[in-house]
Amino acid sequence: MTERFEVDTWEFEGEPVGRVLVLPGGFYPVESPILYWACQVAAGAGWQVTTMRWTVDEAARREPARFVEQAADLLAARAPAAPRTVIIGKSLGTRAAPWANARGWSGVWLTPLLTEPVVRDALTGDGPPATAIGGTADPVWDGAVARRLRGTVVELAGADHALHVGTDWRASLDALTRAVEAVEVHLLAQSGSDRAPRPRTRSVSASPH
User: Which terminus in the chain has less CB density within 10 A, N or C?
Assistant: First the structure.
């Protein structure tokens, strides 16, 4: 199992206010724009960041929910303990919403799979704080469902599944900015403190063997 997964943990000077566990998209790695900047925001706000890189193989495509739950379990186990935990999931990674709910962990859900009942149900009704961010040009974003989600919903006009607005780079950068700002707002609300330690700028690989 573990050869499909690689975990990286950023280190901090001092004690972080909490930990952020990042689950990417199926073909949208943590180095891609929204996840890269979400990680930077989290680190800058004093959170310890632990990210997942994965290989989506045939078994993962057959049982995506099981695949994501295995990845999330490993990510949580490898991430250093902290006073609080927030999940950031993108696309395939939003299948971790039920898993996060069961642990009482809040989440930022980027381009959530609202067409999937398990994700949709996890983000409606009672549960831990949630922020959902998606675009109206994304086929897995359903505006009517989004209006029923709990917590904060950021709907980006014209943005697709990568949060790009066609070939309009200005509109795409604006969408990215709004999404990153929403991540920051969520983390600040969950931090329990206005003060944050200074993060280091490097990451340390903790890939399983």
Answer: C
**Buried b / exposed e along 37-65 (16+ C-beta atoms within 10 A):** bbbbbbbebbbbbbbbbbebeeebeeebe
**pLDDT for 1 beyond 60:** no
Q: What is the pLDDT of residue 203?
A: 33
Write out pLDDT tens, residues 137-150.
999 999 999 999 99
Q: What would the two tokens of residue 22 be?
A: 């990042």
The amino acid present at 106, given as its one-letter code, is: S
| Residue 154: both structure tokens together | 């950021």
Its pTM stands at 0.90
CA distance 69 to 55: 14
Encoding tokens for residue 94? 């939003």
Q: How far apart are CA 109 and CA 75, in angstroms?
A: 17
Give me 125's structure tokens.
């009704």
Q: Which residues contact 44 (CB under 8 A, 6 or more apart)?
A: 196, 199
How many whole angstroms separate alpha carbon 91 and alpha carbon 165? 17
CB 22 within 8 A of CB 39: yes
The DSSP string of 50-90 is EEEEE---HHHHHSHHHHHHHHHHHHHHHSPP-S-EEEEEE
Report d(CA 188, CA 118) in Å as an integer. Answer: 28
How far apart CA 98 and CA 17 sit, in angstroms, is: 24
Catalogue all structural domains in the chain, each as residue range(s) with its CATH number.
2-191 (3.40.50.1820)
